[in-house]
Hints:
Elements: H1 2-29, H2 45-56, H3 58-76, H4 81-99, H5 105-129, H6 136-169
Helix pairs in contact: 1-2, 1-3, 1-6, 2-3, 2-4, 2-5, 2-6, 3-4, 5-6
Amino acid sequence: MEELTSRKRIYLRRALLAATILVCSVLQNTDGWFPRIAGAGALLLIPLTAAIAMFERDISGMLFGLFAGALWDIFASGNNFNAMFFVIMGFTCGTLINLVMRNNFVTHLILTAAFTFIYCTGYWLWHFVFAGTGGSFYAYMVYYLPSIIYTAVLSPAFFFLVRAIELRFRNK
């Protein structure tokens, strides 16, 4: 009987985390549903997926990353780039918490800032610099750098949301 309630808690927790990813994906990728600051948008799925991977660990973090990245690719036609990036991010965050780092607020800020920087800079390099688009430095300074900062500022909300879900539905 105890095993059944334990399994229900796991399924309910993971369903709630998946629903949170779905809601954040819609907020992030639908114009006008989440505020932009001077044209820069927050990348809500990065801090959310990092927080989930920190609590769920490597394999589950990787699978939640796949779900978040696939949703982003569906909305933004990213040619599977986002799915691959999020799989790597989810696995890396979960593994780092398993082996090297502690699961706390500061670690989440560091991981979110690092992965947001990697994502935005890589995207900018690929779509602006390597493509030879004019004004690429201007685009980085006006859009991508503020997006990195905006995402980092919002990241504590995601850490504490995922932490609350995990504490509520973890086995005691």
